[in-house]
Amino acid sequence: MAFFKNAKQPLGIFLYNIRLSTCSRHGYSTWATKGTSFAQSTDTKASKTAYLYWVSRRFNSQAASSAEQMSLIKQLRERTSAPIKDVKASLVDCNWDIEAAQKELRKRGKVLAMKKSSRTATEGLLALAQNEGKAAVIELNCETDFVARNEIFEYLALALAKKALFVQNSSQQIPGVFSFGPECLEDLKLNLDNPKISGETTIQNAVTEVAAMMGENIKLRRGVVMSTSSHGVVSAYLHRCPRPGLGRIAGILSLEVENEISQLDALQKVGSELAMHIVAAKPLFLTKEGVTSDVLNNEREILKSQAISTGKSLMAIEKMVDGRLRKYFEEVVFMEQKYFLNDSLSIKGLKRGYQKVETFKVSLALKLCTQ
User: Translation elongation factor EFTs/EF1B dimerisation domain location, by residue (predicted)?
Assistant: First the structure.
């Protein structure tokens, strides 16, 4: 009962009473007894006040220390975006030295990123970068849509797209288009300038560091660079854009004119509309001539099988197959498709009828989307 009674007292007085009772048991209590003088009583009050002051200072000091620790945790969290439990563990291991803890977090993060590299990454973003006569699109993947919306992830994607503009086509691919895998970029140097990730490093190390920050598998999947001649423009459209230069679906194409461009703004407007059409209509081929023989024969066989099931004559079956094949071309061939803003026109009809610009040629068209 005595304990519970004392528990209601302030902590300083409670500790002081314990100290006095201990002193009393050793025979040198300073408490006044029946014959204690007024001076001794005054000394006792002064001693009690001094002790309470000491207890107060000690607890205030501990509180200040805890506040400093919380401040360091907050600072390191803002610097690295690492999970709070990892931030605190690194600070404790490094004796609350924030610089050493940040370095330690980066070391730990790379190990964790390597462990996560086998996990499936099906979310992500496409990033677009353009300069005069050239455009580059890269796909950067992650595991969740939450990370895909993170500002550091978005910053890295845009930085990779800008670097992809300088990738050179050394293979025998379609002139004007260069598709490449991550190996073409991984060893290139990247100069990052972001509050949470900065300095010069390789692209591979930058991807690994961001993966460590995010706690997910992050990988550069692929990229495409498209260029045109001096008489053309490259236009692109991004769908589902969280911010300029980023999206989940991209349409990109090259337009060229026979002579020197005289109305650049008008040509770029046509390009933007056609890039939007690519996203909406999802063409598989640029022209009918571009449809591969395997695809054409396979589609013709399917259509013929469907026509035979109607029981009509051989001549009627051939006409049915030809008609349905034209319909197939209108669905998958860019130049044969109905223009999505005006379905009374095909793309090739739009090309002939566009009054604001000279006759133009669609050299290349491409649609990309994240996995």
Answer: 135-350
